[in-house]
Design a protein that fits this description.
- This protein is α+β, with helices and mostly antiparallel strands and 367 residues long.
- 30% of the residues lie in helices and 32% in strands.
- It has twelve helices and 15 strands.
- The strands form three sheets. The protein has a five-stranded antiparallel β-sheet.
- It is elongated.
- The N terminus is likely disordered.
Length: 367
């Protein structure tokens, strides 16, 4: 059975780019004119490596002569010579006047073999840019919703028309966009954050992924755009919460620290920094053995192991000896902490200076 797709032209590019299956567009001389990213990945090619190749070098001479069919079992030939099992569909592509323009080879492999839908619309905003014409030649409905422009208007525009003059880093949007496009045209797959501007003039952040669409005569780049406003809000909230937690920890006069199961410091507050006479950056990633004498470090480690083995909070008293000769008696509470799946990750320690309390108690006993 031969499927026909009379809606040809630029919209065909969107069709093949939104398919999860590997797609090869073959001209009337049986040479590959275009391949979508899925085909390139399946066969181990990059960039233009497939453009201009004879179709029989990929599907085999017998299969290249196929005049139609849906769901045929076949083996495509990867770049390294490996045979890739696929379910192949061969379709004819006609123009609006009914003239045969090309043949479409679609290959489904792996988990895709059970699917019957050939066209799956991506949930992201999808665009296809003709780099030399400086405009989009195809956009999906998600793109129109994202920017607030009708599709017909967007087809007269390019990415710089929905961008502010400058990006947050101070670079002109046109210069930065040109750099990313050149990266994609060279075979790269740049992923980056970008500030866009919608029809209402509102600026909003997006994550953009670019990939070159191999074509015999045109420089085309596919864009996948995701609105990340909600993600940014969550990230900002997380930064605020971390700042609040840091302010809280550093305002506590007690010694506060976190260690992993191996005794390596993960976090500490300013009181702990003062004791070790080192910054948190110098303490994190190291153990007590890097800062105190071996006997003291072994005592700290022994108490840590008791807590980890017990699986509950334990309290003990110990002396802290500062480098300047001061001695501080502390009451330390150490508590194990666990990951979301119940795996033991380490312990949290809080030590309070009780030197004066113990001196007062001793004086009271002696009076």
């Amino acid at each position: 059975m031969i499927h026909t797709y009379p809606d040809s032209g630029d919209r065909v590019l969107t069709w093949i780019c939104q398919m999860k299956q590997a797609v090869l567009i073959v001209d009337l001389e049986n040479r590959i004119e275009m391949a979508n990213p899925e085909a390139l990945e399946l066969l181990g090619y990059a960039g233009e490596a497939l453009a201009g190749r004879a179709i029989d070098s990929v599907v085999g001479k017998d299969r290249a002569k196929t005049t139609g069919g849906e769901g045929q079992e076949a083996r495509w030939i990867a770049r390294n010579g490996r045979l890739v099992p696929v379910r192949m569909t061969v379709s004819d592509l006609f123009d609006a006047g009914g003239k045969l323009q090309a043949r479409v080879y679609t290959g489904m492999s792996g988990n895709e073999l059970g699917h019957t839908d050939l066209v799956t619309h991506a949930p992201d905003a999808i665009t296809i840019l003709d780099v030399d014409q400086h405009r989009w030649i195809e956009v999906n409905e998600n793109t129109a919703r994202l920017y607030g422009y009708p599709r017909e208007k967007l087809l007269q525009m390019g990415p710089w028309d929905v961008s502010p003059e400058y990006q947050p880093d101070g670079r002109p949007s046109r210069d930065a966009a040109r750099e990313k496009l050149e990266d994609a045209l060279a075979g790269g797959t740049p992923v980056f954050e970008w500030v866009h501007r919608n029809a209402e003039g509102e600026l909003f952040p997006c994550e953009v992924r670019l990939a070159r669409i191999p074509h015999a005569t045109r420089r085309l780049v596919r864009g996948s755009i995701v609105d990340i406003r909600e993600r940014k809000k969550l990230e900002e909230k997380l930064v605020e919460e971390r700042a609040l937690l840091r302010a809280l920890i550093d305002s506590i006069p007690d010694y506060v620290f976190v260690k992993d199961t191996g005794g390596v410091y993960l976090l500490c507050n300013k009181t702990t920094e003062e004791f070790f006479n080192a910054s948190e950056a110098e303490i994190v990633g190291r153990t007590d053995f890097d800062f105190v004498d071996r006997e003291t470090a072994e005592a700290f480690r022994a108490q840590d192991q008791k807590v980890l083995a017990a699986g509950c909070s334990l309290r003990n008293e110990e002396w802290l000896h500062y480098a300047d000769g001061r001695r501080v008696r502390v009451e330390t509470v150490k508590t194990p902490f666990y990951g979301p799946e119940g795996r033991l990750l380490g312990l949290v320690g809080v030590a309070r200076d009780i030197t004066e309390r113990r001196r007062a108690e001793a004086a009271l006993r002696e009076s």
